[in-house]
Amino acid sequence: MVRTKQIAPTSKRPPTAIKRQIIPLSRRLETKRKLHSGEKAKEKSGTIAVKKRAKPGVKALRDIRHLQRTTELLIPRLSFQRVVRDITNKICAKRVIDDLRWQSNALLALQEAAEVYLTCMFEDSNLAAIHARRVTIMPKDMHLVRRLRGEHITMK
């Protein structure tokens, strides 16, 4: 007998059709399930469409995957520019220089470096939290990471 490769049967409906579940109104009234605050129901010819609730953490994982794929900056440019100008004005207030000017490329390079530093800091802090058998990053994780890196920045 000849051996043939078996192919798994595909489902008839696409996976997007599973998102909503249509419940007849009579069965809906029997169960007397109350709608939650965020849930909305639409009545159409005796049926109510109830949107299924996603599991916790699914949206967070989707956002993480999206942000890992993109190359755009995460901090808005104008707010970062305001912070940089504010800090430089405070530092230069002690000196004679009135107002420093910044080239747009210099601000962009500074923002890129700051975001890379923060991303690496959060990655290492996450590893420290996982090592401590936790999921949540705490300030003590960041202190540990900075201490291991040899960073001791004092703000005066």
Automatic annotation (TrEMBL):
Record keywords, A-Z: Chromosome, DNA-binding, Nucleosome core, Nucleus
Boundaries of every Core Histone H2A/H2B/H3 domain copy: 56-148
Record InterPro entries: H2A/H2B/H3, Histone-fold, Histone_H3/CENP-A
MF-aspect GO terms: DNA binding; protein heterodimerization activity; structural constituent of chromatin
Subcellular location: Chromosome; Nucleus
One Pfam family matching this protein: Histone
GO cellular component, as recorded: nucleosome; nucleus
SMART domains, per database record: H3 (SM00428)
Domain of life per record: Eukaryota
Family: Belongs to the histone H3 family.
Name of the protein in question: Core histone H2A/H2B/H3/H4
